[in-house]
């Protein structure tokens, strides 16, 4: 009898255990689905796992869009747990040098009511979501499983299991049945690739001519009795920007007093600096005044040389689903450039909205699920496409308009 009841539950498989996939699993589990999460990598809570640091920025800006999606995930202390490790950023701090050579910093608040966005450690947020899922009896986390194929008519998926080869030395494969697949496997999504074979998907991707590289401002060592906040070398409550017209350097605070910094710059400038890494500190002195007093020249050179120079992709597609069996969310559906700080936030919001359509059609009948998915795709497309566009436009805003309000207008007039 118990088995009969179990068979009536919806089997939802989630591809990808990033922030969006884990939140999707939580929403599904709280609605009583039998949930399995398949992740390509090993468990990021395992100290042996190679951290994601250099495929995704270490810390991110979490905004109300994402916070609300976590808040509505169900009855748990998850949001509180995540918030404990965040730092509010009330505005951006613009750094520059006056015509007389004096360094200045100018705070620009995000909100007249003082509301903030929050610096959050990407790994910490992801771990909190995984811990939450681990505590749920109807969730199974399956690591080292890479989605390699899917049949969305027969509702079957195939995974390659890494690290456990068969006697022929090749990785083994496993077949999994499902009612619903939620593809949250990032910008290079395999779920999206297979979905394309089943639906007339419009698809557009663009690599912008900007690369990014990560740096770090180390925390200050505290003297005995010193105020713990003194560990931050610059204001912890701001997102710091060194605008440079064609380049930009930003810094986001971390709980330990350090700042994760990102250099955004056209690829040709990376090529030039690559040829003479010793000129990195003088480049910073010229374009990002004050940074060399926060990061030593040796650290600047070693971060520039050792950390990867990574591309930025922008993806738009539609629809996001096929029939009643698959939907893609997060970066898999709408990877965007990071200048609006909304990629993850928008992905988390996808989940809140997706499940509001499942709640509108709460039965587990495939016909209801297909209505929910079709309405979700139609509803979500315009917003997702607009956020992608805003993210692209905000690059001009952040690197130039923060110092010259007319710059963006001039640039727009030149380009149009
Ligand atoms: P991902 O984080 O990419 O997770 C996908 C998961 O799927 C991964 O764990 C991957 O291993 C797994 N996977 C991939 N392929 C397979 C497969 N075939 N089978 C099984 N598993 C698979 N967003 C913000 O909201 N705020 C910010 O401030 C911000 N800053 C950013 C700064 C930078 C420099 C960059 C590059 C991005 C930034 N973003 C920011 C965007 C944010 O990182 C992404 O939008 C977010 O990580 C997307 O989450 P996701 O879960 O959809 O995908």
Automatic annotation (TrEMBL):
FAD-binding domain mapped to chain residues: 12-356
Primary location class: mitochondrion
Cofactor(s) annotated in UniProt: FAD
GO biological process, one term: 'de novo' NAD+ biosynthetic process from L-tryptophan
EC number: 1.14.13.9
Entry keyword annotation includes Transmembrane helix: yes
Gene Ontology molecular function, alphabetical: FAD binding; kynurenine 3-monooxygenase activity
Keyword entries, A-Z: FAD, Flavoprotein, Membrane, Mitochondrion, Mitochondrion outer membrane, Monooxygenase, NADP, Oxidoreductase, Pyridine nucleotide biosynthesis, Transmembrane, Transmembrane helix
Residues of the signal peptide: none
Subcellular location: Mitochondrion outer membrane
Protein function: Catalyzes the hydroxylation of L-kynurenine (L-Kyn) to form 3-hydroxy-L-kynurenine (L-3OHKyn). Required for synthesis of quinolinic acid.
Similarity annotation: Belongs to the aromatic-ring hydroxylase family. KMO subfamily.
Record-given protein name: Kynurenine 3-monooxygenase
Gene that encodes it: BNA4
Residues of the full protein shown: 1 to 416 of 491
């Amino acid at each position: 009898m118990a088995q009969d009841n179990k068979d009536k539950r919806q089997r939802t498989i989630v591809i990808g255990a990033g922030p969006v996939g884990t939140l999707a699993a939580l929403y599904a589990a709280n609605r009583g689905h039998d949930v399995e999460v398949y992740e390509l990598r090993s468990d990021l809570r395992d100290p042996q796992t190679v951290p994601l640091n250099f495929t995704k920025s270490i810390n991110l800006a979490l905004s109300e869009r994402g916070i609300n999606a976590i808040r509505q995930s169900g009855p748990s202390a998850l949001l509180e747990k995540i918030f404990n490790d965040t730092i509010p950023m009330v505005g951006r701090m613009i750094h520059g040098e006056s015509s007389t050579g004096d360094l200045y910093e100018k705070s620009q608040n995000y909100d007249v009511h003082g509301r903030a966005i929050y610096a959050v450690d990407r790994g910490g947020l992801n771990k909190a979501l995984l811990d939450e899922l681990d505590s749920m009896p109807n969730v199974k986390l399956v690591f080292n499983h890479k989605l390699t194929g899917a049949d969305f008519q027969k509702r079957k998926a195939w995974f390659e299991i890494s690290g456990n080869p068969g006697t022929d030395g090749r990785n083994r494969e496993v077949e999994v049945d499902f009612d619903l697949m939620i593809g949250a496997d990032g910008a290079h999504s395999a779920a999206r690739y297979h979905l394309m074979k089943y639906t007339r998907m419009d698809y557009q991707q663009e690599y912008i001519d900007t690369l990014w590289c990560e740096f770090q401002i180390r925390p200050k060592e505290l003297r005995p009795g010193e105020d713990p906040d003194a560990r931050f070398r610059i204001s912890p409550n701001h997102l710091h920007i060194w605008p440079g017209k064609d380049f930009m350097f930003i810094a986001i605070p971390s709980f330990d007093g350090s700042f994760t910094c990102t250099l955004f710059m056209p690829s040709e400038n990376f090529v030039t600096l690559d040829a003479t890494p010793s000129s990195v500190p003088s480049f910073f002195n010229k374009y990002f005044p004050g940074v060399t007093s926060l990061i030593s020249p040796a650290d600047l050179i070693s971060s520039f040389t050792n950390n990867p120079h990574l591309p930025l992709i922008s993806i738009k597609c539609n629809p996001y689903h096929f029939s009643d069996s698959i939907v893609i969310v997060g970066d898999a559906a709408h990877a965007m450039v990071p200048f609006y700080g909304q990629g993850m936030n928008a992905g988390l919001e996808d989940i809140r909205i997706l499940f509001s359509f499942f709640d509108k059609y709460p039965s587990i009948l495939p016909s209801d699920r297909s209505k929910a998915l079709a309405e979700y795709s139609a509803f979500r497309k315009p917003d997702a496409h607009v956020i992608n566009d805003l993210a692209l436009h905000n690059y001009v805003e952040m690197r130039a308009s923060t110092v010259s309000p007319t710059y963006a207008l001039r640039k727009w007039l030149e380009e149009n």
